Amino acid sequence: MGSAAQSRMFRMGFFGEVYAELRKAEWPTRQEATRLTGVVIAIAGLVGVILGVLDFLFGLLARNTLS
């Protein structure tokens, strides 16, 4: 078998196995996915606020230290 044919067979086998594994996965319901998406957005927002406050405070500290 040529190199191109082996490569094609490998890809077909690989993607076939990926598809089979994805079929076995237990996917969340629409309600679970919506709830978890909200949790991720809320946590990302909270982390953003905390980092913004820390950035502001360290900026004040640096400004006062350097002046």
- For the record, the count of structural domains works out to 1
**Structural class determined from secondary elements:** mainly alpha
In total, the number of strands is 0
The residue ranges in which pLDDT falls below 50 over 5 or more consecutive positions are none
Question: What amount of the residues lies in strands?
Answer: under 5%
- Terminal CA distance reads 74 Å
- Rounded mean pLDDT is 91
Q: Which shape, going by the Cα principal axes?
A: elongated
SSE pattern: HH
The main pleated sheet reads as: none
Word description of this protein:
- This protein has 67 residues and is an all-alpha fold.
- The chain has one domain.
- It has 2 helices and no strands.
- The protein has helices at residues 3-24, 30-66.
- The longest helix has 37 residues, at 30-66.
- The protein is elongated, with a radius of gyration of 25 Å.
- The relative contact order is 0.05.
